[in-house]
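Need tokens for this chain, all 163 residues.
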Amino acid sequence: FNGLILLNNMSKVKEINLKKHDLNAFRAEFAGCLILTKDNKILLQKRDKKAFSYPSYISAFGGRIETRETATQAIIRELKEELEIIVTEDEIRFIGAVAEEISDYSELIYEFFWHDKNGILTDKCNEGSQKIFKCYHEVLVNKKLIDDVPWIIKRCIKLGFID
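Here are the structure tokens for all 163 residues:
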């Protein structure tokens, strides 16, 4: 893979050790998810031009974790709201936590991976639009990526979820 692209973008993300870091130091917590389609394509979201934050950027699906909600519960809720799909806890994989330069490292993002092995995805997307990539190289050449996207891809490659 094109390690140069990954390494350049990786400096914009700090991996957070959840056992050692003071989580109260973050002003907000979010959950994000990279999706692999049934035919092994990468599905991300292109944010609306009128989005509150980072308009027209490519991001993982997800959003803010609500009060008394776990990160896992949040990503399941967000996938239902954004894509109108029902995903269960045993189908998603937690892959790590990061903070991004784009938010001055003040927001914690719990990152997940989900493979749509059963083909339940449709073309519905209630926030922004779906963006499908044949391979991760196609993702990484985009200039308008949210900082965590290259990190998620690198982690998914390392874990063997995508190649």
